[in-house]
Structures are given as structure tokens and as C-alpha cells.
Design goal:
This is Phage tail protein. It comes from Streptomyces tauricus. By secondary structure, the protein is mainly β. The chain contains 1 helix and 12 strands; from the N terminus they run ββββββββββββα.
Length: 182
């Protein structure tokens, strides 16, 4: 189910908000320009959640605990820096994405027919900030039909480039990736 809620530029809420179940393959999904996706995504060794890829195309990839299966995802675009979501998220990280311009979509990593959520029909060239909130990654492939699905919230907004920032670190999946740094 996809729910798109267009908004108007205002300080109190997002410009757009989309909720969807996204099919994941290879523990990853990414923000890409579908006309020029990278061949391979970068592992999130610095934040444990999200990383920038510059190989063969620019993308921001987000790592899931689910190897193959569905996750619940909400995407929000904002005109300026949004508040951090109130809900109990396990890991939260931010990263800057240098964007050359063009369509920006969230894309599952299924090579045959990727799921897609359009974030911007035409994102202006420049820098965007991405804040990824995650929970439920640690169950990974041990998740049963009775367990709550893995959930993600991505907030995206235009912003000056800045260093990656890890705002919350409590899940084992993120700890594993951060231990690979260095």
C-alpha cells in the first residue's frame, strides 16, 4: 500500500510523505537517479545505517537487517531541517548526498523489477541531507510472520554538505557495520 500526502511548504510538516511496503533484496535499498544508478552500493561502515556511493553513479544506500523480504518504509521530503521523529527508533544517522540533478527515487535492490518511490521528479543540483531512522533490523532472517516488520523512516531536505552524524546507536546490525570502519 502506498500513501502519498502532498503538502505545502510550511515549517510544521513535510512537503511529501509516502508510506509503502518495499521488497528488499541483498539487505539494501538506495536513493538513486534511475537513469544512472551505481553498479554497487557502499557499506555503511561509518554510521551503521546509511552510506554514500560515488562508484559509477551517486547514491545513498541504506542497510537493512532483512536480506530478502518486505520492510515498511516512510519517506518524507522537507523544505528545511526536520525535527527528529518522536517514535522509538533504534538507530538514527544522517549523511549528505551531493546530487548532480535529475529524478531522485528510492529504489529497492531487486535488479529485475525494483520497487520505486519517487522523492523528487527533478531534484535540483546541490547537496541534500538524509536522515535514516530504523528499527527491527536485528531480527533479520529470523523474523516470522507474527513479528513486526522492519521499519524505516527517511527524511530528505536540501542542506549544505556536512559530515556524517550518528544520532542514536542501539541495534546490533548498526554496531556490526560500525565495527568494520577503519
Amino acid at each position: 500500500m502506498t500513501e502519498t500526502t502532498p503538502g505545502t511548504p510550511r515549517e510544521s510538516g513535510p512537503l511529501t510523505r509516502v508510506q509503502k511496503t518495499l521488497f528488499i533484496q541483498d539487505n539494501t535499498y538506495a536513493l538513486v537517479n534511475p537513469a544512472a544508478p551505481p553498479e554497487r552500493f557502499t557499506d555503511p561502515v561509518e554510521t551503521g545505517v546509511v552510506a554514500i556511493t560515488h562508484r559509477g553513479g551517486i547514491a545513498a544506500s541504506v542497510t537493512c537487517g532483512t536480506h530478502i523480504g518486505d520492510i515498511r518504509i516512510t519517506t518524507e521530503t522537507w523544505p528545511t531541517t526536520p525535527p527528529i521523529a518522536d517514535e522509538p527508533w533504534e538507530d538514527i544517522a544522517e549523511i549528505s548526498l551531493p546530487w548532480p540533478g535529475g529524478r531522485m527515487v528510492l529504489w529497492s535492490s531487486d535488479d529485475d523489477e525494483p520497487d520505486e518511490i519517487t522523492l523528487y521528479e527533478h531534484a535540483e543540483p546541490g547537496s541534500y541531507r538524509i536522515r535514516a531512522h530504523v528499527r527491527g533490523r536485528d531480527l533479520g532472517e529470523d523474523r516470522t510472520e507474527d513479528d513486526t516488520p522492519e521499519e524505516h523512516l527517511l527524511q530528505i531536505w536540501p542542506a549544505k554538505p556536512d559530515q556524517p552524524n550518528t544520532l542514536k546507536t542501539t541495534d546490533r546490525t548498526g554496531a556490526y557495520w560500525r565495527s568494520q570502519h577503519g
